[in-house]
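To: structure subgroup
Subject: Chain for Friday's discussion

All,

I'm putting the inputs and outputs inline so they're searchable in the archive.
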Amino acid sequence: MLVDSGSGWRRDGSTLTKTFRQAGFKTAVAFVNRVAEAADAANHHPDIHLEGYRNVRIVLTTHVAHGLTDADIELAKRIDSLAVRP
């Protein structure tokens, strides 16, 4: 599973969570926008938190299923592909 692959995603109860550190505020906001576009295209909407001006914390869960589903795993993989590392 994604959580065990060293990807940085961790399971926290019924969610998958990961924090992405970006180069700065503008880069973090651009990342948030890319995640929002991908999530909307997948019709799967995570909680997105911009913290400390350059850290973006993503929380994935499938609310109607009251837990994690394949949709969360697929979106996590897509989000990883969108990240820009400083």
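Points worth raising on Friday:
The radius of gyration is 12 Å.
The beta strands are 10-12, 15-21, 47-51, 55-60.

D.
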